[in-house]
Design goal:
heterodimer, A: 172 residues, mainly alpha, 8 helices, globular, B: alpha+beta, five-stranded antiparallel sheet, 5 helices
């Protein structure tokens, strides 16, 4: 697909922040598994977005840029500290052990664990489509893949998520 | 459990998480980010001013000549390394394991006098392409090198007026980044959101 560059109007940073901060935090939390670390990574990424807002606001999906910058920073921290923190153990996301009831926590550890199971590309599509609410064409543009590939990855990811959730739910 | 129920369950989890950091706190932190970027440039500028002042005080300006002064300098980020050479060229090495941050690379290239448009998820090019891109970009080492990074040497002095370099970065299915680079006419170019599968005829592909 080719199109003529026409430029895009700049978003207001404060409005963008209000609308996307929670979704970005959740997307990063799914990957790093620690609420405090995720919060710090996302705050820093939004700060960098503000510092480069003229260019970031023209990104096809600024929220996806924020998540990417936060996860890149997470990798950088991991390399500096030389210890495994980048991906949580299934079932231990948000500090909850597998099987622990979520009554004392706002998050369901089964769903959080299920979100870590799909392969990297499928997780990227889940982040864009389900967590950041990007449409198929915008997701395809950001990831550099075709819209049909986005749909295929999403379908497979949902099937993986379902397989991770159904056994637990059937036990209830 | 059908697809809609899975999607609803995921989004219900998302909607339970809230960031309590205010926008004012983010902007304050953003100012710190800007300051961190500014300090190295300011130190360099002060050093250049101090060196020029010293040269004038010693009466050496005539001996040094009027050629612009370039100091060797290196910027390292997760996504790229940019080395400025005394002859005015710069070597850009892109880490294909990390997607480019457009603002950072654009600003750092501009510091070295390299006009550039950086895009993620799309690539812009001119047809016809401006002449002389081979004078603007050259490659150290072998293109067949299978290492994780590859480099391009950029000579901003060879960039014709009205042109800039277009960097289009895409994330491939394996997660690695692939960046296409071309010289474009700033007044006439088109962009594609389809990742190029081969180097552009008037440029190169890194990654």
């Amino acid at each position: 697909m080719r199109y003529v560059h026409v430029g895009t109007g700049q978003l207001d940073f404060a409005e963008f922040y209000r609308e996307s901060k929670d979704a970005c935090l959740f997307a990063v939390l799914v990957s790093v598994g620690d609420r405090d670390v995720a919060q710090d990574l996302v705050d820093e990424a939004f700060a960098r977005a503000w510092a480069s807002w003229r260019s970031v606001s023209r990104h096809p999906a600024p929220a996806a840029w924020v998540v990417r910058v936060a996860l890149n920073a997470s990798i950088s921290r991991w390399r500096k500290r030389r210890r495994e923190v980048s991906l949580p153990e299934p079932g231990k996301v948000a500090g909850l052990a597998a099987g622990q009831e979520a009554a004392d926590s706002p998050l369901d550890p089964r769903i959080m664990a299920a979100l870590t199971r799909p392969p990297a590309r499928q997780r990227q599509v889940v982040t864009m489509r389900l967590l950041l609410d990007l449409d198929t064409s915008r997701t395809a543009e950001v990831l550099g893949i075709s819209p049909s590939a986005v749909k295929a990855h999403l379908a497979r990811a949902i099937a993986t998520l379902r397989s991770g959730l159904i056994p637990e739910r059937q036990q209830e | 459990m059908n697809d809609d129920e899975v999607i609803t369950a995921v989004r219900e989890q998302r909607d339970k998480v809230h960031s309590h950091t205010s926008v004012d706190q983010i902007i304050s932190r953003g100012r710190t980010v800007r300051a961190r970027r500014w300090i190295p440039g300011a130190v360099t500028a002060l050093a250049v001013v101090a060196a020029a002042g010293t040269a004038l005080a010693l009466g050496l300006a005539g001996v040094l000549g009027a050629a612009p002064a370039h100091s060797t300098d290196t910027i390292r980020t997760m996504a790229f390394t940019l080395v400025r050479h005394p002859n005015g060229t710069a070597t850009l090495t892109i880490n294909r394991n990390v997607l480019l941050e457009p603002g950072t690379l654009q600003r750092d290239l501009a510091r070295d006098g390299i006009r550039a448009m950086i895009t993620v998820g799309r690539f812009c090019s001119s047809d016809p392409a401006p002449a002389g891109w081979t004078k603007v970009m050259s490659f150290p080492g072998s293109p067949a090198d299978p290492g994780p990074v590859r480099s391009v040497v950029i000579n901003p002095a060879a960039m014709p007026a009205g042109t800039e370099l277009s960097f289009g970065s895409f994330q491939r299915a394996n997660g690695a980044a692939q960046t296409s680079v071309a010289l474009i006419d700033r007044r006439s170019y088109t962009c594609t959101s389809t990742a190029p599968t081969a180097p552009p005829p008037d440029g190169v592909m890194i990654g």
